[in-house]
Specification:
Elements: E1 5-9, H1 14-29, E2 33-39, H2 56-88, E3 92-97, H3 102-111, E4 115-119, H4 133-140, E5 144-147, E6 158-162, H5 167-175, H6 177-182, E7 185-191, H7 205-213, E8 218-223, H8 230-241, E9 245-249, E10 252-255, E11 258-261, H9 263-271, E12 276-279
Parallel strand pairs: 1-2, 1-4, 2-3, 4-5, 6-7, 6-9, 7-8, 9-12
Antiparallel strand pairs: 5-12, 10-11
């Protein structure tokens, strides 16, 4: 399925503007519509004295001041999105969501996108502190592209698929197929393939053939972890190969009534310095 609708979590900050620019370039490359989602911050406590006001009029003034600041934040976010999209010539729209509506509205808006672009694990990516892209991924099933704040790359041309022959990895390949087909190179990366019976007699051969039939330029690489964590082996290879994007399938399991990612996924989320596309 082609990528025709991309949602991006908007912030009027340098990382937020870099994220918008990245999403706009992606939308331009795929002739997609870009939806900017801005979660209005809770701008309380503009001045310490506001916490001690008394009287009906004084409270009204504080509330009015807070609403004015929130309106300024919305306008700044809207300007960031419209400015970048105008320069890129990308079809776009802006939607602002109140904090109290986050649980329903942001998930609902994400459901209608082919891909959601948000910030990496070093910050909250424009989401409320109590939430994360991982939580939204598990709630919606929509693939998420996490862009680290430190990322300065301009394009998605050299992709790595972390392949373990699992259902989740297969889902990630399907969700990322338009990116894989458009890439200059795709590496199907297998770590310690001999330890995984699902790979069969020729590890990576079948998924590479599947991708090549769709038009992707694919190579297969098998590496050994040599006792290191699998995530570290993946990241070391990615760094050496100068890849632009890692595609992974995230599995989860129930623990204390909460969905928790597996160890490799958590480590990649914590340590990766390049964009990650995660599907579940």
């Amino acid at each position: 399925m082609p990528i025709k609708s991309i949602a991006v979590i908007v912030e009027a900050t340098p990382p937020g503007e870099a994220r918008i620019a990245f999403a706009a370039r992606l939308a331009c490359a795929h002739s997609a519509h870009l939806v900017g989602l801005f979660v209005v911050p809770m701008l309380t406590g503009g001045h310490g004295a506001e916490s001690f006001v008394r009287g009906h009029q004084a409270l009204k003034d504080v509330i009015a001041h807070q609403r004015a600041r929130e309106a300024e934040a919305v306008e700044a976010a809207k300007r960031s999105l419209s400015g970048v999209c105008g320069r890129q010539g990308v079809s776009f729209e802006f939607r602002s969501l109140e904090q109290g509506e986050f649980g329903d509205d942001l998930a609902l808006n994400s459901l209608h996108a082919d891909l959601v672009v948000t910030g990496g694990p070093s910050g909250n990516g424009g989401l409320p502190n109590a939430w994360s892209a991982e939580a939204l991924l598990l709630a919606t099933g929509v693939p998420f592209l996490l862009l680290p704040d430190c990322w300065t790359g301009a394009a998605v041309e050299h992709l790595v698929v972390a392949w373990n022959a699992s259902r989740e990895a297969r889902r990630a390949v399907a969700d990322a197929l338009p990116l894989l087909v458009a890439a200059k190179s795709v590496t199907v990366l297998l770590v310690d393939p001999g330890k995984n019976s699902r790979h069969g007699d020729e590890p990576g051969a079948d998924i590479a053939l599947y991708l090549s039939r769709h038009g992707a330029k694919v190579t297969v690489e098998q590496i050994a972890s040599n006792g290191a964590p699998v995530a570290r082996a993946i990241l070391d290879h990615v760094r050496q190969s100068a890849a632009d994007l890692v595609i992974i399938g995230a599995y989860s399991h129930a623990r204390a009534a909460q969905m928790v990612f597996g160890g490799v996924t958590r480590s990649l989320l914590r340590e990766a310095a390049i964009p990650l596309l995660i599907a579940h």
